[in-house]
């Protein structure tokens, strides 16, 4: 009952448009599962892949997508812990070597041999996709597959980023790009982790949205006269600033502002990846205010299961919109103009 051909969205040339076409259904290798994808989220990383704007080599042509949720329909002979019929998720980390020093410490996202869904290997914008069984996310039976799809990259990434920030319950985190895909989930995870949220994004609609999701304050970067001062003031505690900052926006400017408003001893976590951008900060302040600046890149298998567990417990409710697989380019067009509020998820049957 597994067909030979299927519909897919394929990146064929830098800059796009992405091509909706029929391609062969892949076969799982001995250590892989074949997942019938029901829904896939559309991440801004998919747009970077389409534009070819990162200094990281991409396969061409490549099927895009890396937030795929579905059901296992076949598996390789070495796969023992996953059964046909199980729900599974395919994420950015499609596989890693499992034997380098990073993999041995479960730091598989920095494995030099990692394979990336929708980038170095075919991803989840297709009806059937393969992933290494150990890296495929385990999703409990009965879970809403459309709602959980964005957890597989956006949710996992912001959950890991919040852990990396070291912010503790009761403290305040500023989320930059709070109205987007990662941002909307970051508000929800931060709230579930007992943090106060200061949301930063552009426009009134995203402001309403962030407050509905649980942000205590919203700062509009498009109208703020002195963004740094406004963020410090909104964080309370006599203007000391937020304890942590999650930089999620795919623009350079916030990466040059964050050390200005983060609290002394605070941590700035870089997650968004604007093309060609640099982080910059005054050495004097960084030293005398003891500021930490670090990067955070998706998460490992354990982080994945923890992020899913928050969702399954009903703690994470970020709105998303569903469109057909054939409409991925329309989603990219809206994303380029920062018009998306929350996340888009594509339905593989349409
Ligand atoms: O593991 C990782 N580090 C990881 C994982 C997943 C995604 C990194 N990413 C990267 C993506 O590649 C992308 O560069 O995170 C970035 C954001 O992804 P996204 O959340 O999927 O993008 P989005 O839905 O388009 O949201 C971006 C938001 O940023 C706002 C936009 O208005 C939008 O709501 N924004 C912009 I553009 N400029 C801003 C600014 N100056 C800003 N918000 C605040 N200040
Ligand atoms: Zn992603
Ligand atoms: Zn490795």
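^ structure tokens above, recovered residues below v
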């Amino acid at each position: 009952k597994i067909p030979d051909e299927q519909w897919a969205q394929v990146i064929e040339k830098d800059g796009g448009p992405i091509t909706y076409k029929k391609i062969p259904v892949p076969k799982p290798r001995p250590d892989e599962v074949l997942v019938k994808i029901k829904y896939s989220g559309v991440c801004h990383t998919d747009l970077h892949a389409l534009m070819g704007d990162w200094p990281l080599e991409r396969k061409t042509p490549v099927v895009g997508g890396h937030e795929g949720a579905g059901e296992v329909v076949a598996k390789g002979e070495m796969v023992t812990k996953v059964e046909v019929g199980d729900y599974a998720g395919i994420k950015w980390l499609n596989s890693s070597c499992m034997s380098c020093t990073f993999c041995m410490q479960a730091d598989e996202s920095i494995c030099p041999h990692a394979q990336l869904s929708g980038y170095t290997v075919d991803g989840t914008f297709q009806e059937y996709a393969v992933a290494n069984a150990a890296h495929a996310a385990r999703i409990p039976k009965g879970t809403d597959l459309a709602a959980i799809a964005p957890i597989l990259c956006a949710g996992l990434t912001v959950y890991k980023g919040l852990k990396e920030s070291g912010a503790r319950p009761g403290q305040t985190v500023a989320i930059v790009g709070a109205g987007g895909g990662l941002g909307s989930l970051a508000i929800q995870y931060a709230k579930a982790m007992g943090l106060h949220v200061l949301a930063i994004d552009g426009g009134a609609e995203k402001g309403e949205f962030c407050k509905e999701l649980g942000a205590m304050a919203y700062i509009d970067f498009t109208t703020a006269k002195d963004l740094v001062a406004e963020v410090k003031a909104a964080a309370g505690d006599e203007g000391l600033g937020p304890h942590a900052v999650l930089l999620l926006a795919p623009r350079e400017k916030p990466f040059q502002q964050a050390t200005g408003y983060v609290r002394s001893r605070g941590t700035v976590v870089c997650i968004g990846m604007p093309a060609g951008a640099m982080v910059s900060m005054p050495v004097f302040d960084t030293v005398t205010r003891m500021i930490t600046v670090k990067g955070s890149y998706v998460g490992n298998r354990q982080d994945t299961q923890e992020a899913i567990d928050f969702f399954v417990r009903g703690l994470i409710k970020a709105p998303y919109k569903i469109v057909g697989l054939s409409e991925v380019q329309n989603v990219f067009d809206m994303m380029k103009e920062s018009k998306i509020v929350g996340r888009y998820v594509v339905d593989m049957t349409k």
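The longest helix spans residues 154-165.
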